[in-house]
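pasting for ref
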Amino acid sequence: MSDLFRRQMIDYVEYHRDPRNGLMHVIGIILLFLGAVLPLSLWQFDAFGLKISLGAILTLPVLVYWLLLDAALGAGILAFAVLFLAAAMMIVDHVHGIALWALFATLIVLGLTAQAVGHQVFERNKPSLLDHPAHLWLGPMFVMAKLYMALGFRPTIADLIAPDWPSHRRRSEQLQGDQHSHP
């Protein structure tokens, strides 16, 4: 795990402490990813005997970024991305016209709603993306880290995404030391 990734995740975790918000992010990220690649899957190409969508081609740079941040988590995201890209291609093969665009809009709206509900109802804060636009790319890494932790893979990731500090104190305060208990 790179130092850059560690610092980014510590900052991201400050906005995502409530497990219900984490669940809403799992739902939201899946719906948003599928929704985003759905219309891009209308354009399909043959490459080396494989059918590849424009969605897959445009997803490659961010997949490489995730692999560079953390190879194990990036590989997990890559596996899920392949499944979702294949699902999107199957959907566009069977759903056409206005129904496809309605499905696209529904997935995007539901994905954004899930994340907004997670922050407003459960976390009672604004999405980290509003303060740190780069957090847009960290959501899938956070979700994959949670999955790895739940499955018992990479137990050290738990120290990063589920640290043991009081929920009423921000991580930045914890990093500065416990100044509240000293005169």
